[in-house]
Design a protein that fits this description.
The chain has 160 residues and is mainly β. It has helices at residues 130-133, 143-146, and strands at 11-14, 34-39, 55-61, 70-71, 80-81, 94-105, 108-112, 121-127. The protein has 2 helices and 8 strands, in the order ββββββββαα. The mean pLDDT is 97. The structure holds S-adenosylmethionine (SAM). S-adenosylmethionine binds next to strand 6. Keywords: Methyltransferase, S-adenosyl-L-methionine, Transferase.
Length: 160
Amino acid sequence: MPDTISLQPIGRIHSPFTFTTGMPIQTVAAADVTGHVEVFEAFAPGLRDIEHFDYLILLTHLHQASEKLEVVPFMDTQSHGVFATRSPARPNRLGLSIVRLLRVEGCALHFSGNDMLDGTPVLDIKPYVPALDVRQTERIGWFQQGLQRLPETVSDDRMK
Ligand SMILES: C[S@@+](CC[C@H](N)C(=O)[O-])C[C@H]1O[C@@H](n2cnc3c(N)ncnc32)[C@H](O)[C@@H]1O
């Protein structure tokens, strides 16, 4: 296995958020906040048929985050191992945002549900398919309590 893997962004996020402080922490809590993915021209053929999906999974590089192994998540006051959280500060700084596709204009994918900074590099886009992506589960760890905070929690700069 290689020690490092180099990835090429396929696009970038256009978002109203230029600072992490005060912005939404998850797309599900920011359903009214719009943005768009600018897909770079070289990747345009990969967009064929994408307009037939309501939701997309955006895999992003949260480029302004730091890399941590233990964090106090936005929705908790206790520290957790980063892999038990959705913290942006993590090895490789990968983000996963499920967004609602509003319309496609050329290489621009307009969406609602936005928890990404302006300029966030996009590494991949996948269609969200409930039959593949949804599981019923009761065991959600510390989120069992933490999710109660989701509606009123916004980001701060602790992940820098
Ligand atoms: C908690 S993460 C969740 C991201 C994604 N929904 C996930 O679960 O992987 C969302 C937060 O990441 C931070 N963030 C968003 N875009 C970023 C970027 N490009 N660089 C650094 N931090 C970013 C903001 O603090 C935002 O509130």
